[in-house]
Specification:
Structural class: alpha+beta
Radius of gyration: 18 Å
Helix content: 25-40%
Order of helices and strands: EHHEEHEHEHEHEHHEEEH
Largest sheet: 8 strands, mixed
Distance between the termini: 20 Å
Number of helices: 9
Shape: globular
Strand content: 15-25%
Length: 271
């Protein structure tokens, strides 16, 4: 199901920005090219020879997912017009792919037992020139609309902290574990052979203010929505990151966008 039409634009100065799902293989390749620029060129992830030759980030899951795009029409209609992206994977898509992407890092059995639709969020990135409030608004407008259309009950995904030395990230990981650990029935656990203990500091030694200053904006955004983290971190040496699994109940997703989209859908049905 496609997002219907252009979603409400909340910043008049950025009317050239649109959020929608990829509609063609060319759209998906544009998202992959953006991912390559951010993950491999900017963040120094390690590409396969095929990725380096094509200058696109891709894997076997791409063909089974929806790809949310933020497009700046002021940049034309080519690949460069895609300035933000998220990869979206629901239960039926994971069934076709054989698993959710995060299953390589986390035991998701508790999430899989949760009633209702699941949505895995992944491969989030934004062009360096567009890391601002309007672009993030478009992405969250798109996610809220997608959540509504597919009646998603729970969102989750691996979120990354730069760096592969958990000791250097001890304050951030300990803060997440002590303050935001998911309740047992919603708690993914890192697979045993990749499990890294997040509870690295005594609770009274955690520097909360410093942790919040150092955590990536994406993780802080999930926490503001009431998000939780799973038990255990995972080091991803390909991407030079340490991952945590974040879980968000969709009833905590930006309510004003959700209600607005519900009204638009109701009005369209009545018309």
């Amino acid at each position: 199901m496609e997002l219907t039409g252009r979603l409400p634009q909340s910043d008049e100065a950025n009317e050239s920005l649109e959020v929608r799902l990829a509609e063609s293989q060319e759209d998906i390749q544009a998202a992959q090219a953006l991912r390559y620029r951010v993950f491999y060129t900017e963040m120094s992830a390690i590409p396969s020879p095929e990725m380096a030759a094509l200058r696109r980030d891709f894997d076997v899951f791409d063909q089974h997912c929806d790809h949310l795009l933020v497009i700046d029409h002021a940049r034309g209609t080519g690949s460069d017009s895609v300035v933000g992206t998220y990869r979206l994977m629901r239960r039926s898509m994971a069934d076709r792919a054989g698993q959710f992407y995060s299953s390589d890092e986390y035991d998701l059995s508790r999430l899989l037992a949760y009633p209702g639709e699941l949505l895995e969020l992944g491969r989030s990135c934004v062009d360096a020139a567009y890391r601002n409030r309007p672009t993030m608004q478009r992405l969250w407008q798109g996610i809220a609309a997608y959540v509504f259309q597919h009646q998603v009950a729970l969102m989750f995904g691996c979120a990354s902290i730069p760096g592969t030395d958990p000791r250097a990230l001890a304050n951030q990981l300990s803060y997440l574990y002590v303050k935001h650990l998911a309740p047992p029935d919603l708690r993914p656990t890192a697979v045993p052979d990749r499990y890294i203990d997040m509870n690295l500091c005594e609770p009274d030694a955690i520097e909360t203010r410093r942790a919040l200053a150092e955590l990536p904006p994406l993780i802080k955004g999930y926490l503001r929505l009431g998000g939780f983290v799973g038990d255990g971190a995972v080091v991803d040496f390909q991407f030079n990151t340490t991952d945590v699994c974040v879980v968000v109940k969709t009833d905590l997703v930006t309510e004003k966008y959700y209600r607005h989209y519900e009204r638009r859908s109701r009005d369209a049905a009545a018309g």
